[in-house]
Each structure stands twice: as structure tokens, then as C-alpha cells.
Design brief:
The chain is α/β, with parallel strands linked by helices. It is about 30% helix and about 25% strand. It has 2 domains: about 200 residues, Medium-chain alcohol dehydrogenases, catalytic domain (Quinone Oxidoreductase, Chain A, domain 1, Alpha-Beta Complex), CATH 3.90.180; about 130 residues, Rossmann fold. Strand 17, helix 11 and strand 18 form a beta-alpha-beta unit.
């Protein structure tokens, strides 16, 4: 089968190649891949800056497809099911976090596309526990973005508890920021999306397809003044930092109201950064980390997909074939469009 393989550590070292199709055993399920999203993690792997990538490995962990074969221990998933899958391939099963299914916090977790061959391939394997059967109304294209949706659900609902009538500000108009905006709008929040002039196309997607209430190009407008006008000087209820930019975080601490929440999703350049801790203290801000997603995040995401209140495919701006994977990576690295997706097997919709 055809795959996109990261052959060795370091910059690039990626190529299309043919390898044998994976074989099922135990509780494993073989999936014919329809679409595989190109994620920021994949870009870091491409650049050689993601330490978790264990080469050689097939990249990709955002995907959808159809089940073609199941292992002898599989009881719930059937051949022909339209599915998506969590990224967890294996855990230690013994730590305190595994016992509560907080797999995103297991130190010995093994992930699809990092430790185990992933979804930029014609076929991949996943364990039955990680697989979710799709509602009939959900397209395979939308379903391929359930993983970033689940990350957004974990941040906005499980950590941020966004409620109807609240005003929130999202920093970062990329895929995660726009999916989080969809979830927040579905919850009835007023959404401000903050970014830069280079986000013009992404702002358009936010306004036209997600109905974001207000976009702010911070190179042209003063975000603090905009927030002051919208909130009557009180500040936003919650801030979500999705850009990985420290100045955005500090601006978020400035514009959030007293006793408000700031949720960090973005990964900053350095392990230790200079942030405005005086604001956290004197405004009694709740500063919360939100790492990836976990099974409960996926369950809620599938509910939102079934309801039709969140439609991830609206953020897809580029689809390429496995052979043209580099075109999709280049567009993503250059910040062109919002979300690039690889079509791994044509004609599956």
C-alpha cells in the first residue's frame, strides 16, 4: 500500500513509498482511509522538531475511513462501518490517569502517527476502544477532523465550560481556533476571533461559515478597545490561546475580566516564558492548561457532529492526494488557507 513515511529524524526525510498492508490481530481494526488531516504536529515532525516521533513511521492521526477487517477479539466494530478514531494506540493501563481515561496525561501512551504507523496511508490500524462509528449524517471529510474538534471540545467545554451568553476571545485563527469557535457558537457564546493581517482568509471563513461575531486584526485594531466596547469595560469571560504566541497570552490576561478564565492550548517556543503573572494574581484569573483530548472529548464531539451544530469540513481549504502530500505540507507551513487534508483513497464518500 502507498504511505507517506517519515524515514529518519531531522528536517524533511519524508517520502511516498509502498509497504505491506497492516495485519489485524487481537482487538485491532483495519481501516481503509478516506481522508487524513495535516496537523501542526505533522509539520513539527516534518521539520524534525517533534521529539515524540519515532522514525521510521507513517505520519497522520486525524482521519476517517471504512472498516475492512477486524481482529478476533473485536466485538463492537463491524466490517463496513464508517469510522473515525482517537489517536491513542496503547497506554500503560495502570497509572492513575489511565484509570480515569485521561489518556492524554499517560506518560507511557503510544500514539497513532508518532509511535505507531498512522493515517497518511491507504490503510491503518487502530484498537477497538479508540474507534467511533459515525452518524449517518456526517461526511467522511468532516469526520476526518474529529481529532482537532475533540481538542477544541476538551478546551472549550471540559476545561473552559463555555456557557450561553458568555463573551469569549480566541487567539489564533487556524484550524483549532476556528473549530473552537464553532463549538462556542454551538454553546451560545459571543465569539471574538483575534489574529493578524495574514489571517485575512481565515477571518473570512470564520465570519462567513462559522458566523463568528467579531474578528479583530490586531495589526489594524486595538483589541483591548474592541473588548472594552463590547463588554462595557468589564472584559471577556474567557480567553482561549490557540496561537502559541506569548504576546497573545499576555494580551488575553489583559482583556479577560476579573475572576475570568484563560485556557492555554497553544505550545510556546520555549518551556519557560515571560507572562504577566501580576494580572493572574490581582485579577484572580483562573489560568488553565488544555492538552490534546481524551475519550470523553470524542464522545461529546460525535454528539455535536450528529446534531449538525458543528461541521468541521467548512474549514477545509485544500485537498491533495497521497502522491501530492508535499503540496499540502507546503501550503500548511506557509500558512495558506486554513486546513489541508490528504485524500488517501478517492471515491469513498
Amino acid at each position: 500500500m502507498k504511505v507517506v513515511m517519515k524515514t529518519a529524524q531531522g528536517y524533511d526525510n519524508m517520502t511516498v513509498m509502498d509497504i505491506p498492508e497492516p495485519k489485524v490481530e487481537g482487538d485491532l481494526v483495519k481501516i481503509k482511509i478516506a481522508y487524513s488531516g495535516i496537523c501542526g504536529t505533522d509539520l513539527h515532525a516534518f521539520k524534525g522538531t517533534y521529539a515524540s516521533t519515532k522514525t521510521p513511521v507513517v505520519l497522520g492521526h486525524e482521519f476517517s475511513g471504512i472498516v475492512t477487517e477486524v481482529g478476533p477479539e473485536v466485538t463492537r466494530i463491524k466490517v463496513g462501518d464508517r469510522v473515525t478514531s482517537e489517536t491513542t494506540f496503547a497506554t500503560c493501563e495502570t497509572c492513575v490517569y489511565c484509570k480515569t481515561k485521561d489518556y492524554n496525561l499517560c506518560s507511557n501512551r503510544k500514539g497513532i502517527g508518532t509511535h505507531q504507523n498512522g493515517s497518511m496511508a491507504e490503510y491503518t490500524l487502530s484498537r477497538e476502544e479508540s474507534i467511533h462509528v459515525l452518524p449517518d449524517n456526517v461526511s467522511l471529510l468532516s469526520a476526518s477532523l474529529t481529532e482537532p474538534l475533540a481538542c477544541s471540545v476538551h478546551a472549550s467545554i471540559e476545561k473552559g465550560d463555555v456557557q450561553k451568553g458568555e463573551t469569549i476571545c480566541i487567539f489564533g485563527a487556524g484550524a483549532i481556533g476556528l473549530l473552537l469557535a464553532q463549538v462556542a457558537k454551538a454553546r451560545g457564546a459571543y465569539v471574538i476571533l483575534a489574529g493578524l493581517t495574514s489571517d485575512e482568509e481565515r477571518f473570512a471563513v470564520g465570519k462567513e461559515k462559522i458566523l463568528v461575531d467579531r474578528t479583530v486584526d490586531q495589526m489594524k485594531e486595538n483589541l483591548a478597545d474592541v473588548v472594552k466596547e463590547i463588554t462595557g469595560g468589564v472584559g471577556v469571560d474567557k480567553v482561549f490561546e490557540c496561537s502559541g504566541a506569548v504576546p497573545a497570552l499576555n494580551k488575553g490576561l489583559e482583556i479577560v475580566k476579573k475572576k475570568g478564565k484563560v485556557i492555554q492550548m497553544g505550545v510556546f517556543p520555549s518551556e519557560k516564558e515571560c507572562i504577566a503573572t501580576d494580572l493572574i494574581l490581582h485579577k484572580e484569573i483562573e489560568y488553565i492548561g488544555s492538552r490534546s483530548q481524551k475519550p470523553s472529548s470524542w464522545e461529546k464531539s460525535i454528539e455535536l457532529l450528529a446534531e449538525g451544530t458543528v461541521v468541521p469540513e467548512v474549514i477545509v481549504t485544500k485537498i491533495v492526494s497521497l502522491d501530492d502530500w508535499r503540496e499540502g505540507f507546503d501550503a500548511s507551513i506557509n500558512g495558506e488557507g486554513v486546513k489541508a487534508v490528504i485524500c488517501c483513497n478517492a471515491g469513498m464518500e
